[in-house]
Design goal:
With about 350 residues, this protein is an alpha/beta fold. Helix content is about 40%, strand content about 15%. The chain is built from twelve helices and twelve strands. The strands form two sheets. A six-stranded parallel sheet has the order 2-1-3-4-5-11, with helices on both faces. Strands 7-6-8-9-10-12 form a six-stranded mixed sheet, with helices on both faces. β1 (about 65-70), α5 and β2 form a beta-alpha-beta unit. α1 (about 5-15) packs across α3 (about 30-45) and α8 packs across α9 (about 190-205).
Length: about 350
């Protein structure tokens, strides 16, 4: 057989060419049964869409971009994996763009459509303002992740960082912890993520009837596990006395646990520790890490729902979508009865 065509797939599946096209493009209105039927024919015949030809005919590439600060951070690496799977399920290819949290990298990402490379971009911005993003993106369909920095009329998908941090503090307070610290925000100007998580930390203290003490909040100069270990170790050596700790992210928690171990302290005996992101490594630590777990699948699904609507040109005001989270309880801060998830 020569090159397999769209018509070949349609005849094999007993459906119209438009239905096959809709499946290939990942349109959501195709039923699961029909999608499976067409996909079986695609697999059986070995059909491969002609992306360049389709791009010329439709002005679309069927490729999306996911732009994020740093692939070395486990959370973003794992989130990129989730996005890749969800995109594949919808018939899209995914281009990963590491912005390094720098203006140039973020500008390049939101300008992707101008180069004819991608149909739309999901971005987790770190430094660009809404005005800068709006002026740079042209007609690129963009959906934002994280804190609300979207230009007017744009879409945002995020978890509620303030609520999640407050719930994490409540979990520690339920264990009887009364001197609860925070670890991992930036030295000097704070990122938007850190600011919201610190706000939730303070809300949680207030709800638990505990005072806020700025001396219990430990910043780190370098945003990785070593930076957290160094900062927390110095604080402990200087006399920091806490019995509970909420960390900005799991890397900060990893650093905290190491700093504690080197000083003869254990979690949860001496300090109950809660991380953030529920990275794969968290469950393999000793002790296993209690962590705020964002629903990354729901986040990716919601972001791509909005992006596909924008690509299709559907009108509507931009909106913020909040996805769920949970406290995944491990040994570092178990339930009051000592059990874990």
């Amino acid at each position: 057989m020569g090159q397999v065509t769209l018509q070949d797939v349609a005849e094999h599946a007993g459906v119209s060419m438009k239905t096959v096209s809709n499946v290939v493009r990942g349109y959501r209105h195709v039923s699961d049964a029909m999608r499976t039927r067409v996909q079986q024919s695609i697999d059986a015949l070995g059909y491969r869409p002609n992306v360049s030809g389709r791009s010329l005919a439709t002005g679309r590439t069927n490729m999306l971009a996911f732009a994020f600060p740093d692939l070395r951070r486990p959370y973003f690496a794992e989130l990129a994996h989730v996005f890749s799977r969800v995109c594949a399920d919808r018939g899209y290819q995914l281009l990963l763009e590491e912005t390094a949290g720098a203006p140039g990298g973020e500008l390049s990402a939101v300008r992707g459509r101008e180069a004819g490379v991608v149909d739309g971009v999901v971005i987790h911005p770190q430094v660009l303002t809404p005005t800068e993003i709006d002026s740079a993106r042209g007609d690129t369909a963009v959906v934002f992740l994280g804190e609300d920095v979207r230009p007017p009329g744009s879409d945002l998908v995020a978890i509620d960082n303030v609520l999640a941090a407050s719930e994490a503090v409540a979990h520690l307070a339920a264990l009887g912890r009364r001197r609860i610290g925070f670890l991992g925000h930036e030295v000097g100007e704070q990122s938007r993520t850190s600011a919201f998580r610190l706000e939730g930390y303070r809300d949680g203290l207030t709800a638990a009837g505990l005072p806020f003490d700025a001396s219990l909040c430990v910043a780190r100069e370098v945003g990785d596990a070593r930076g957290a270990e160094h900062a927390f170790g110095q604080a402990l050596d200087a006399g920091l006395s806490i019995d509970g700790l909420l960390c900005r992210d799991d890397l900060a928690a990893v650093g905290a646990l190491r700093a504690m171990r080197l000083r003869g302290l254990e979690a949860p005996r001496d300090i109950a520790v809660v991380g953030w992101d529920a990275i794969g490594l968290a469950a393999s630590l000793v002790p296993s890490l209690t962590s705020v777990a964002p629903d990354t699948v729901a986040l990716a699904e919601a972001a791509l729902d909005r992006l596909q609507e924008r690509i299709a040109g559907r009108p509507g005001e931009g909106r913020a979508v909040t996805v769920g989270h949970r406290i995944l309880v491990g040994e570092s801060a178990p339930y009051p009865d000592g059990s874990v998830d």
